[in-house]
Amino acid sequence: MTADRSASRTSFRALHPRSLLAQLTILVTAEVLLFYTYSVHDARFHWATHFLVALIVAAAVMIVHLTVRGAPGPRFPLILVLGLHLFAMAPDFVFRAGAPHAAWMDVFLGHLSAHYLPGGDKAWLLIAIVAVSAYVVLLTRWLHGRAVEATVPSAASAQLAPTSAGILRRPGRRR
Amino acid sequence: MRWWVPAIAATALLAVLIAVVVLLVRPPGPLDDPRPAFQRDGLLRDGPVLDTDFEGVELGDRTVILLFERSEPEGGEWEQWQADVTDDGADLVVLTPNDPAHDRLVSALHMPVPVDGGPPVGYAVVDSERQVRYVTLDPQYLVNAYEVDVITGAVS
Q: Domain range holding B94?
């Protein structure tokens, strides 16, 4: 029973409300500052592209984590978004330090190529909405599965079959 | 956590994100390149090698910044920009549509045409071998002097 509780705590680690609130505060504060620094150089377009690409990659990482590990993760999902955004922006820091852009800088989440997507930031926004929505659907199903599991008696629980996303399903019952 | 919380939170955050991208990230203005990706891309080019003389504008032997404007720039901000971009030894040539070399240089540099279809506002950097290394529209060039410095510093 203690092991079960410990496993449950670990599964929900990435969803701790206080941690998520702290991460959201850090993310929003940092992004407002980054938006401002791009804005004073008439470069909001660049901020948006790199943020949206980072958000899409973060959503993909979280989808893979939930699907493969059967639990939400990584532990600090909103800090992951900020970290990926800073990584995608790295060539701009290098430019500021005196080095022009070069083709190899595409290793930073497609820093150069990302701007050439037809539709520009609107297209990236649409992809980001789809990616985040896909993760939210999977996460909601996972949470719903945990809620069902918590209300089902342990004997019945033993008959539940886990799906690849860690969602429990009754044998013989179609979803 | 309740199973419906992520959906509510994500909906609210995505609504804010949509508002920021749609309302605060402006589309190209009248003086901008209609292709945002090609404006101030920060990439050095191996562009064409130009003639040594364009109606009195001499190229070669030093890095030259060719600034295209619709009227003669003036004021304190302009003076500061001028000092900033030439402090590493680059020459600065200002070209307005009235200048005899304007049209020939616009053509030779392949300066982009802004959204409003008028003369370009932006700049090009030609290195000491007279090769075109950078061409961009930039109606906000006065707030981006450091970008010119990065380019001239890299080609000098």
A: 32-155
Please tell me what DSSP assigns to residue B119: S
For residues B5 and A160, give the distance between their C-alpha atoms in angstroms, rounded to a whole number.
25
How confident is the model over B33-48, as pLDDT tens digits?
Answer: 999 999 999 999 999 9
At A111-148, the pLDDT tens digits run: 999 999 999 999 999 999 999 999 999 999 999 988 88
Q: Is residue B18 part of a domain?
A: no
> Chain B neighbours among A 59-78 (CB < 8 Å)?
none
- The whole-number pLDDT of residue A151 equals 84
Q: Could you give the number of structural domains in chain A? A: 1
- Secondary structure (DSSP) of A55-108: HHHHHHHHHHHHHHHSS--SS-HHHHHHHHHHHHHHHHHHHHTT--B-GGGGGT
Task: Return the CA Rg of chain B.
Answer: 20
Domain that holds residue A28: 2-169
Report ipTM for this prediction: 0.91
**Segment B89-117 mean pLDDT:** 97
How many domains does chain B fold into?
A: 1
Distance of alpha carbon A77 from alpha carbon A71, whole angstroms: 13
Phi (first) and psi of residue A62, to 5 degrees: -70, -35
Say what the pLDDT of residue A155 is.
47
Residues of B in Cβ contact (< 8 Å) with A41? 140, 143-144, 147
- How many CB atoms neighbour CB A138 within 10 A? 19
CB contact under 8 A, B21 and A122: yes
Cβ B37 vs Cβ A116: under 8 Å? yes
Q: Is the pLDDT of residue A109 over 90?
A: yes
